[in-house]
Q: What sequence folds into this?
């Protein structure tokens, strides 16, 4: 029987403070002080769950046209922090020497944890069905983290070039001595899709708690991957399967005018839209900090909202108030997320998948298949839960482009924060009809001789959209070459 020493307590963060994973080959023995022997299937099943599964957004977030900083956080950092480099679109900065705030580390630490379960649970004592379920759930979560990695550190999937475009390391075994080669973008997507297609049908509809992936999440994730892979019919079918299992949408008309400071109905684990609990920053306890640093939306995005009638804006975002001046420049035209994330309040999921996103995936799949009537209907079903009075009607699109433009707009307004807009910009920039040259004028409030107002421009094909692997990871694995022309 295989025995592995790990911390068995489910909510203990010590596992990840002791696992210093700095590259995709840098596994270490998991033998923290006070460990117990994990040799039962139930213990392996517990290891799958990470209630504070978190992703630091600092290395890429300011490249999004939806993001905006406090101006003094950029001044002086245009060459030495990711926020400063990315916000000023500085392609000459040496960003390859800047740490990525453990984003890469966490992604591959999560993959390592799933590999530990997949490769060892079969030899554990216990129920055979639970062994199968443990491997199934771990494969789904492993696929998710490979999806995140390839969309951060490589080009977006493009059919014509994906077989040659450099991707990321595929880690599909728990091997302490592995020094893997980098796979292509096509190979990474093939791996992700094969994993999900095999595992998702075996998921439970109602697992023991919300931190285990359920079948609605599995099909939702599969629809997202198919969408990015441009498999429109498969994206449609998977999204329909997901919504057949969970099509719940919270009606924002229920939320009181004061926002969700006192609103408890959908707090903690009770938001029916949330299909997976994943957070910015270093977990939900510190997502409030992440939202103060990266919780502002740009003046451009503010201008896209009907600020009076769109409850996504009027209930949760604001542009003034004494309590926000430490994080926000009043008068900039930007807006900031009003209440800090708190598990006792309305749960707005910044990274994890929600049913709302599945509605938009389905709408896009139908639009891509030129079924504009169905596409419009799913956008309107979502908007009916977001617009004051419940009228989510949109104008009938004259063509596919008009429908796609509406979907892109709704994705920007619905899917704030996390990876969403950054990933969307990357994938849409590979299509000439949707590619965007981003411009921003900065500063707005603190203009001076030292900090004159300038216009910054980001081309759709800028190498900044490909985040460099951390130097620590590249030092440990010489096979992990950059996917840009940087050194």
A:
């Amino acid at each position: 029987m295989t025995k592995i020493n790990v911390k068995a307590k489910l909510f203990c963060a010590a596992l990840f403070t002791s696992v210093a994973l700095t590259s995709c080959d840098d596994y270490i023995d998991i033998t923290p002080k006070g460990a117990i022997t994990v040799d039962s299937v139930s213990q392996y099943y517990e290891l799958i769950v990470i209630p504070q599964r978190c992703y630091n957004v600092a290395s890429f977030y300011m490249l999004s046209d939806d993001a905006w900083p406090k101006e003094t956080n950029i001044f002086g950092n245009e060459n030495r922090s990711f926020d400063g480099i990315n916000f000023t679109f500085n392609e000459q900065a040496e960003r390859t020497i800047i740490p990525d705030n453990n984003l890469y580390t966490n992604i591959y630490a999560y993959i390592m944890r799933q590999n530990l379960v997949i490769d060892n649970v079969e030899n554990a004592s216990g129920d055979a069905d639970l062994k199968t379920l443990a491997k199934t759930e771990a494969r789904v979560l492993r696929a998710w983290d490979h999806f995140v990695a390839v969309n951060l550190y490589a080009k977006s999937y493009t059919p014509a070039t994906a077989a040659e475009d450099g991707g990321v390391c595929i880690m599909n075994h728990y091997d302490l001595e592995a020094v893997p080669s980098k796979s292509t973008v096509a190979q990474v997507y093939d791996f992700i899709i094969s994993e999900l297609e095999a595992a998702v049908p075996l998921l439970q509809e109602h697992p023991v708690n919300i931190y285990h992936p359920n079948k609605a999440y599995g099909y939702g994730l599969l629809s997202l991957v198919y969408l990015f892979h441009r498999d429109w019919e498969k994206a449609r079918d998977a999204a329909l399967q997901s919504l057949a299992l969970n099509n719940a949408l919270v009606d924002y008309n229920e939320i009181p005018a004061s926002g969700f400071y006192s609103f408890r109905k959908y707090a903690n684990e009770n938001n029916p839209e949330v299909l997976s609990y994943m957070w910015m920053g270093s977990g939900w306890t510190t997502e409030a900090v992440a939202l103060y640093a990266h919780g502002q939306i740009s003046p451009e995005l503010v201008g896209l909202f009907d600020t009076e009638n769109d409850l996504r804006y009027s209930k949760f975002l604001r542009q003034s108030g004494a309590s926000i001046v430490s994080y926000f420049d009043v008068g900039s035209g930007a807006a900031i997320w009003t209440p800090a994330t708190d598990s006792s309040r309305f749960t707005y999921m910044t990274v994890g998948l929600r049913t709302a996103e599945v509605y938009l995936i389905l709408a896009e799949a139908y639009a891509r298949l030129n079924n504009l009537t169905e596409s419009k209907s799913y956008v309107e079903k979502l908007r009916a839960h977001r617009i004051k009075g419940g009228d989510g009607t949109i104008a009938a699109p004259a063509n596919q482009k008009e429908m796609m433009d509406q979907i892109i707009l709704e994705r920007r307004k619905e899917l704030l924060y996390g990876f969403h807009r950054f990933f969307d910009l990357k994938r849409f920039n590979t299509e000439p009809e949707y590619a965007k040259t981003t411009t921003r004028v900065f500063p707005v409030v603190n203009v001076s001789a030292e900090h004159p107002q300038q216009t910054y421009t980001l081309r759709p094909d800028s190498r900044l959209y490909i985040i460099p692997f951390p130097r620590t990871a590249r030092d440990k694995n010489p096979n992990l070459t950059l996917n840009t022309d940087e050194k």
